[in-house]
Amino acid sequence: MLTSKISLFLFAGLSCLLGASAWASDYKAALYTLSQEADQAILISALHQNGSAEFVSSIQTGGKGAGARGQDALQSSDSLLVHRNLLFALNSASDELSLFHIDPKEPWDIQQIGNNTWSGGRYPTSIAVSPDSTKACVANAGSESYIRCFSINESGLELIPSFSFDLGLNQTDPPVGPPKTPSDLSFTADGQILFVTVKGSGNATEGLAGRIEIFDVSSDTVSHKSTVYAASGPGGLPFSVTPIADSAAYLVTDPTGGADILRIERDGSISYNASIAIPGQAATCWSAYSPVTDRYFTIDLTRSVITPLTINSTTLEATLFPGYNVTTSSGKPGSLVDARIAHFSDQQDYLYSLVAGDQTVRVFSLPAGGQSGTLDLVQTYELGVAYNSTGGAVGMSIEGLAVFIRSSW
Questions:
Q1: What is the CATH number of the domain that holds 330?
Q2: In whole angstroms, what separates CA 4 from the centre of its chain?
Q3: Secretion signal: which residues (predicted)?
């Protein structure tokens, strides 16, 4: 009975914040953002049917974010991740993971499951979840740069003690990068392989090589299988991972040149490996895929440019379109640090890109049948202003985006 009363109170409070009934059909989804403050918070926004965002509330994770480290504080992708109705958050400075349950009909209502869990190393920066929802794996970037995995159960996350892989990065706490830091993790669609992108020293002839570590995954074990290299070579800085639709291949961004396309086979080998040169790029770090437009979008941190491209799922050949420049209100490059696609319907996607330079989120409409490669700006969402007005103090270290689409009501 007490739990029911608390839930009703939360719903009523959220209704007031939204300025309408929390059950109002105008709200299609929720957007989550990590504050990266010393007192880490998840910033929760409701998404309207037209894609625009509205701040709802924040919830403390009980851990510590990156703190004031400037733009791209984590030098990674997937520090905040939605998987089904679960939200995973990394608290890098306190070496912890937080797990939340998302109410599928009211996704701005999230409740923590269990207590925070030790990451199994120092300074976790990326997380991936297996397709069957039984495992979560984490890359630690600090002085104990281990890949560790966890079982997912009703009470939270439980470290799998039998698996620990040392990336051997010889880092500090916090790590100094981007070179010699892990970037991202991903499971293959069948869940039998986990792979981790690791940035090298940035010099092909000295120090650690940029590489991809591949692991076998079974129901009860994880084991290292092989080390492979992207087409950019050992001097590259492989970064984020985006699956290529209708294929067994992946788009792997690389700030040294643009991106690579890799097809990873079950035996851990790479059967296709090619680079995509993005003209004028300076630091292409993230990417996202829109199923409605069948377009991929790469994010350049330094130049603050979003570049659309198509990739043929059979030949894996890429076609680039002109980039879209994002600036702050003062006209300076915006420092783009992340991107997510929200799939609203078979006719409409939206692209959300976080701008660390002014703590905003740029919202772009991606309709079916739209002009190839174009981005239609819907909103410059003043997320930082909205959160700071509640007593928060988010700054340029803000990083981490995730989206949950509301269930039918």
A1: 2.130.10.10
A2: 33
A3: 1-24
SS (H, E, C) 5-68: HHHHHHHHHHHHHHCCCCCCCCEEEEEEEECCCCCCEEEEEEEECCCCEEEEEEEECCCCCCCC
Confidence (pTM): 0.92
Q: How far apart are CA 278 and CA 271, in angstroms?
A: 23
Alpha-carbon span 129 to 371, nearest angstrom: 34
Could you give phi then psi for residue 384, rounded to 5 degrees? -60, -45
Alpha-carbon dihedral angle through residues 39, 155, 79, 339, given to the nearest 10 degrees: -110
**Which pLDDT score is estimated for 407?**
80
Q: In degrees rounded to 5, what are phi and psi of residue 12?
A: -65, -40
Domain count for the chain, please give it: 1
Is 364 inside a domain boundary? yes
pLDDT interval class at 25 (50, 70, 90): low
Rounded CA-CA distance 67/329 in Å is 24
Quick check: is 387 in a domain? yes
- pLDDT attached to residue 284: 95
Give the CA-trace dihedral at 13, 17, 18, 24, to 10 degrees.
Answer: 10
Dihedral, 103, 104, 107, 113 alpha carbons, nearest 10:
40
Peptide bond into 178 cis (omega under 30): yes
Tokens 């984490």 locate to 138
> What is the Cα gyration radius of the chain?
20
Q: What's the average model confidence in pLDDT over 328-338?
A: 75
Residue range of the domain that includes 257: 29-405
**d(C-alpha 14, C-alpha 398), whole Å:** 24
- Over residues 123-179, the pLDDT tens digits come to 999 999 999 999 999 999 999 999 999 999 999 999 999 999 999 999 999 999 888
Element (H or E) spanning 383, and its range? helix 383-388
* Residue 155 is assigned to a structural domain of this protein: yes
Token pair for 322: 């002109």
Is residue 63 in a domain?
Answer: yes
Give the pair of three-digit tokens for residue 89: 């958050």
Q: Residue 388: how many CA atoms within 13 Å on its side-chain side?
A: 12
Torsion sign, CA atoms 355, 71, 196, 128: negative
